[in-house]
Amino acid sequence: MQTETINLQQLLPVVEGWAREAGAIHFSYFRKRDLAVDIKANDYDVVTKADKESERLIISRIKERFPHHSILAEESGESGGDRWQWVIDPLDGTTNFSQGLPLFCVSIALQYDGVPQLGVVFAPYLDEMYSAVRGCGATLNGKPINCPPKNRLAEAVVTTGLPVSRHENPDNNLDNFARVAVEVRGVRLRGSAALDLCYTAAGFLDGFWEMDLHLWDIAAGALIAEEAGADVVYFRPGRPYSILVASPALTPRLSALIR
Ligand code: IPD
Ligand code: CA
Ligand code: CA
Hints:
Largest sheet: 8 strands, mixed
Number of domains: 2
Radius of gyration: 18 Å
CATH topology of the largest domain: Fructose-1,6-Bisphosphatase, Chain A, domain 1
Bound molecules: D-MYO-inositol-1-phosphate, calcium ion
């Protein structure tokens, strides 16, 4: 079978445009009353009208241009058997969003044979567009970003998240949190894994780890972090995505604390 060639550099601004459109949908609901907050897995896992509309918009844009591509999207699942696959988190940080907190974003990645090739994370409230094409570096609003070479835990400000199963499963990252919190300058819980990855890529944070995430949370952000020069390590192989991202000098120090 002939393999389709895609000019990813030319595609990037198109995908950034889709992300901006999705961000406009987020904005149209942000801090309004008609969010229609629904429960998903449990009380700690929610979805809103904005998540669903954002996802519909992104999928329709993909289908207009690449009708044969596969799609994995958080709210509507997986479809297609093509080697090119779009991985979409239509609104990452839904709990923040539903509270009126401004840390939320849309995350879109394009993979080939399971390897991310292009990633875009757009935070509309912050007007921050993080982007990467494999092998071409990462950018924030068009300017190159590089993960700084910090290597001391005492100077590091890091971030993590807690799994939605934390209430019934004692294996819930709080042990890692306790070990890391006493070693670093600061630890944050910000509520958007995709943005945490991008903030680590840009050096606004020095590291991020979280366990049991989904591919849509991390596909774009992990590529952006990798392209910015961060180490991207998957701990707990065989489980859902458990990821640690930091500058290469800091990774072994964080790895020693996180299991
Ligand atoms: C969630 C956020 C959060 C992380 C959760 C994710 P959602 O995604 O990324 O930071 O801790 O594990 O599920 O539900 O807001 O798209
Ligand atoms: Ca998410
Ligand atoms: Ca989401």
